[in-house]
Each structure stands twice: as structure tokens, then as C-alpha cells.
Amino acid sequence: MARKFLYLVAFCIVVFIAGRIALQFYPEQLSRITFTPGARFKPQPALAANAYAASKLWIARPDMAESNPAQWLPDRIADRIADRGKPIAAAVFFIHPTTYYEKLHWNGPTDDAVSGQLDTVVARTMASAFNQAAVWVPRYRQATVGAFFTDRADGKAALDLAYRDVLEAFDAFLAATPADQPIVLAGHSQGSFHLKRLLADRIAGTPLARRVIAAYVIGWPVELSAELPALGLPACTAPDQAGCIVSYMSFTDVGDPAVMRAAYRHVTQGENRPGARFLCSNPLTGGIGGSAPPSANLGATVPDLKMEHAALKPGLVGATCAPDDTLRIGEGPDMGPFVLPIGNYHIYDYALYWSNLRADFNRRDAAWGKPAPPGAAR
User: Fold this and answer.
1) How far apart are CA 92 and CA 33, in angstroms?
2) Which residues contact 274 (CB under 8 A, 6 or more apart)?
3) Residue 372, Cα to own-chain centre: how many angstroms?
4) Over the stretch 182-216, which tens digit does the pLDDT of each residue have?
5) Torsion-angle region of 280 (φ positive above 0: left; ψ -120 to 50: alpha; else: beta)
6) Nearest to residue 240, comparing CAs of 286, 184, 279, 296?
7) Distance between CA atoms of residues 52 and 57, nearest Å
8) CA–CA gap between residue 249 and residue 319 (Å, rounded)
9) In the chain, count of helices (H) and strands (E)?
């Protein structure tokens, strides 16, 4: 029996290694095979009227008190509550990334147990960067990850359904927020994909644009020539600029962004435009492009295996915007078992620069309502 168990362990290791090797050479193909549902998309009814008035459709919101995962802090700060920082009189709307990976459905139910646990982790490790303010993180019928790796109409329909929920949650967020309160819009991956649509549909050219401290469209491309102008806010070119957009995607110096580029290509034609360029914000400088050493990193959050606690580690990585408009982090630190193949630190886009994003939010909040700094677009 012991020998059979050892054979099973050895077999699993071989399969795991073979899978990673295969993913390195065929990332798009394997992602499509692994995550794309075989069944057709089935239209779903709209959520009930005022569905987002109920707390069950929120991962985090200000009235959750001790059960609010967005109030999480890394150990070094959590042990010294005085270091939390001065409260910020803003409201943050954060759209979570994909946490539903099943092939049974094109959209995950809002009460799915596994994705619900991952949503809590996301609120801790990402949305927490903004928790000096009131943070709102909605649940929504997110598209499964396979929707980003297909050209079928089913994938677009799944993303449209997810976005419809996001809009309803955003309307509920606005209804609960005073009309003169500044807001921050943030997301990651699928959340940032929806955030771009929200910016174009609900922010650009409206009075709401004047309330935006910043939009953190992280972990998803923002094409500069066609997409950025439609979002209604300029890119953040200076660290003390408000009313602007931050966007980057993290890879090691030799990391390959092929999977992310493929996902982007399937849901938009932006990359196919000749000479297309993308926004690469530098989270260590607060501007666009350039390079900053690890010494400029105020603190990354390195999680434990349960993703419940994290050590705060200053100087862990630097940040350089590469010629391909991706953010390069050096050789890549040991962040645990969830670093994606081919040097892709997608899951840790927020964690690697958690303290700097927190400081970035503070600076832009202080600048909100003031004249733009010289040279900054408004």
C-alpha cells in the first residue's frame, strides 16, 4: 500500500511538471481547453430590484464592521493599529477579479462556495490597500475565466451579464454615497475589464468624473490611443495628480505576457491595431514608465499559505516599465505557490506594491479638488 501511494505521489509530480512545461509552450491553447465551457451560454434574468440593498451581495461594505475582509491589514500594521493611517473621507468601489474557474457554467453564481472563499481573499489582499476609506466590494455573476479565451459569442454574453450586475452594484454604491463625496474606482483582472466599461459608460463626460480621486485599472491592459480617451480620465503622470488612471501588469524580467495578451485579444481588437501601445503606470513613482529600485518599495505583502496573514516586506521588488509596456519586477520573489507560469505575477499585482498603492491613494486624495500639478493632464 505504501509503495502504491509513493507511485501515486510520483505520478502527480510528473503530471504537474509536465503541465507547467506544456503551459509554458502552449499557454493560450491550454487555457482555452481547460477553462472554456462546452455548453452554450444560457441567458439569465436580471437580479431582483434593489438586490444590492441586501448585504449578502457584498463581499465588503462599510457596515460590516468586524466581518469586513477589506479591513484586513498585514501583520506588521495590524499589530500596531496606530499605523493604519489617517482615515480618508472617500468611498471606494472595488470590482474583484475572476474567482470562478468552473466549466459547468459561463457565469458563476453569487453564492458559489469556492469562489466566495476566494472573494474574501481578494478583499483582504487587494481591496485592503484602500481601507483607510469606506470600501465597497460587490459580488456579481462573474464570467468564468474561459470567457477570456474564446471568440465565441457565448464568452461575450457571459461578460455582458457580469457587467450588468456590476452596473447595478455601482448604482447602489452611488445611492448610498453622498453626492459630494469623492470616490475611488478600482479593480483587478476581470474587475478591471468591467471597470473600463464602467468608466466609459458612467464616468466619461459626466459630473461624476469630478468626484473621482483615481481609477486603479490594474491587471488588465489599457490601450493608449483608442481606449484611454474614451474612459474620460487621463493617465496619472505625476504622484500628486488626482482624477486620473493607474494601470500595470507585473512580470519577471524574462516573464512572458502571452496569456494576458491573448485574453485581451479575444475580448477586444485593441492589440491588433498597428503600433498599439498600453499604459504602464509605475507604482513606485506614481508616474508613467521609467524605473525605480527595490529601495523605493515601501512594503509588499507576502501571504501565508492560507492567505489569511501576510508579512510586510519593504524593498522586495523594484519596478520597470519595459518596451512592451509591461511592468517588470526583476527575477521575481517567492510569494508562494500561486505565481503563474512563465514569470506571470498577475495574482500579486496589488500585493507586490501594497504599501505604495496605499501611499498613492493618500497623495491623490490630498490632491483631489486642487489644481493639477504642472505638466499633468486633466
Assistant:
1) 36
2) none
3) 26
4) 999 999 999 999 999 999 999 999 999 999 999 99
5) beta
6) 286
7) 6
8) 11
9) 9, 12
